[in-house]
Write a structure and sequence with these properties.
The protein is α+β, with helices and mostly antiparallel strands. It has one domain: Phosphoribosyl-AMP cyclohydrolase (Ubiquitin-like (UB roll), Roll), CATH 3.10.20.810. It is 14% helix and 34% strand. The strands form three sheets. It has a four-stranded mixed β-sheet with strand order 2-1-6-5, with helices on one face. Strand 7 (107-110) and strand 8 (115-118) form a beta hairpin. The longest helix is centred in the N-terminal third of the chain and has 10 residues, at 35-44. The radius of gyration is 15 Å and the shape is globular.
């Protein structure tokens, strides 16, 4: 697909991707895609990422059931970062993080103590999400 050629893929054939909640603007997560993952995302209207640790496509929610319905796919001005506008499905309230939280960006640096502090609660025990 010609639109995939417009993307500046890194040396491993990947592009960074940010998933943003359509309704709230919350940044839910950061991941990677290769061309196949991005093409499948566009075709299915569902987020498909590339797992660097497993070296394979990762259909968001394939284990947890926490699927991301994709509303739009945007490309930044340098053509090297993708932004997905999504609705997080599978649990209410929405869970995007493997820790059972709404967002992967739940830690905030306390500037006084210089320590990271969790700002968002665990909505569901990860042990119950990822049963093997």
């Amino acid at each position: 697909m010609s639109w995939l050629n417009d993307i500046k893929w890194d040396e491993k054939g990947l592009v960074p991707v940010i998933a943003q909640e359509a309704a709230t603007g919350d940044v839910l997560m950061f991941a990677w895609m290769n061309a196949q993952a991005l093409e499948k995302t566009a075709q299915l209207g569902r987020a498909v990422y590339f797992s660097r640790s497993r070296q394979k496509l990762w259909f968001k929610g394939e284990e947890s059931g926490h699927i991301q319905k994709v509303h739009s796919i945007r490309l930044d001005c340098d053509n090297d970062v993708v932004l997905l506008s999504v609705t997080q499905l599978g649990h209410e309230p929405a869970i995007a993080c493997h820790t059972g939280r709404h967002s992967c960006f739940y830690q905030q640096l306390n500037l006084e103590t210089q320590q990271w502090q969790a700002q968002d609660p665990v909505l569901k025990d990860p042990q119950s999400i990822y049963q093997k």
